[in-house]
Design goal:
GTP Cyclohydrolase I, Chain A, domain 1; GTP Cyclohydrolase I, domain 2; single chain
């Protein structure tokens, strides 16, 4: 994947400022195209990352019960409007065969998936699938809760509205009581 073209972004931002009737050379805006290019390089750095890379390090541990990391904060950009959405991800899995990963790796995978133009539904499914493909657990559950600025600051204008998406794989897709148990932990 190629790196971010700062010059192109700067030109595009200058054109946007002109298109909305602003003067890109006025004092408050003169460095805005550079700042936006730098920001885009940061908020879209996940385009060059595979979330499965974070699961290369595994540990042998005789544990085949729930591992849950909840309230992982994330920020992403809606691919439909290029405005932020943000919230928390909750990632749980049941290890198989003593194969566990570092807890921080789950948070790093969330970050890698979120930092690209995205849809919340895709973030949720991609995280779940990455855990399944990398760790081959008995089951995976991912719950993502987010507030979307495309619904808050424009359009329907409903601040505080949250969207919740889930992805369940393996035992969590098959067993409603297991799902309910994890959802209870997430709510508490």
């Amino acid at each position: 994947m190629q790196s971010v073209d700062h010059k192109k972004i700067q030109q595009a931002v200058t054109m946007i400022l002109e298109a909305i009737g602003e003067d890109p050379s006025r004092e408050g805006l003169e460095d805005t195209p550079k700042r936006v290019a730098k920001m885009y390089a940061e908020v879209f750095q996940g385009l060059n990352q595979d979330p499965k890379e974070h699961f290369q390090t595994v540990f042998g541990e005789d544990h085949e019960e729930l591992v849950l990391v909840k309230d992982i904060p994330f920020f992403s950009m809606c691919e439909h409007h290029l405005v932020p959405f943000f919230g928390h991800a909750h990632v749980g899995y049941i290890p198989r065969g003593g194969k566990v990963t570092g807890l921080s790796k789950l948070a790093r995978a969330v970050e890698a998936v979120a930092k690209r133009p995205q849809l919340q539904e895709r973030i949720t499914a991609t995280i779940a699938d990455s855990v399944v493909e990398s760790l081959d657990p008995h089951g995976v559950i991912v719950v993502v809760e987010a507030e979307h600025m495309c619904m808050t600051m424009r359009g329907v204008k409903k601040p505080g509205a949250k969207t919740i998406t889930t992805a369940v794989r393996g035992k969590y897709a098959e067993d409603a009581s297991l799902r309910a148990e994890v959802l209870g932990f997430i709510k508490s």
